[in-house]
Design goal:
The protein is elongated. Helix content is 43%, strand content 13%. A hairpin with a 7-residue loop joins strand 1 and strand 2. The longest helix is centred in the first third of the chain and has 23 residues. It is built from five helices and five strands; from the N terminus they run H-H-H-H-H-E-E-E-E-E. The chain binds zinc ion. The site of zinc ion has 8 residues, from loops.
């Protein structure tokens, strides 16, 4: 994976960020579940699993599973690896349930509607920085909302106008949104 990333000229400044990138790419391109399944832990010792925690391995593995329609949960022989995968999968599923995605839960959509109303009523919209979206006023056109693509985390910006189908410009994932 180091060689591949070097050849395609994908790198971050600094060693730790590149090691995390290498591990993430390894998991995402298919070798992840074997690495995670080899992980063992007991009361006195735990192996080091590259630069990601077991739960982070599980998260990347689950992101891959969502894109490729796989279910690695039945592949594990290690109970610890399975637990880490399930925990990572919960986090990955949460990414798919953030407003303005239509899959967002009731509470998230309600919070979103309140923030949107506030953004529409005031010149300088104030949205909590913890929110997974932000409203951007556009002097001429309609209010816009920005949020991260749940698949590739690229920032997406669309006009606020109700239910729309948005295609991520980077990974081409089609997202059902209620803006
Ligand atoms: Zn994307």
């Amino acid at each position: 994976m180091h060689v591949l990333l070097h050849r395609v000229d994908l790198a971050f400044p600094g060693t730790p960020a590149n090691e995390i990138l290498t591990d993430t790419a390894t998991v995402y391109l298919g070798a992840g579940w074997l690495l995670l399944d080899a992980y063992r832990e007991d009361a006195v010792s735990s192996q080091k699993l590259g630069y990601l925690t077991p739960e982070e391995f599980g998260y990347v593995l689950a992101k891959r599973a969502l894109v490729f329609g796989e279910d690695p949960s039945t592949w594990f022989t290690s109970a610890r690896a399975y637990t880490a995968y399930v925990e990572g999968r919960e986090r990955a599923r949460l990414d798919e349930r953030q407003p303005p995605l239509t899959a967002a839960g009731w509470a998230g959509r309600r919070r979103y509607a309140r923030d949107r109303r506030q953004a529409q009523d005031t010149a300088a919209p104030a949205v909590s920085s913890a929110a997974p979206y932000a409203f951007v006023p556009d002097g001429r056109g309609p209010l816009r909302v920005t949020f991260r693509c749940p698949t590739c985390l690229q920032r997406i910006r669309v006009p606020v106008r109700g239910r729309v189908r948005v295609r991520c410009g980077l990974c081409r994932t089609v997202l059902e949104c209620d803006t």
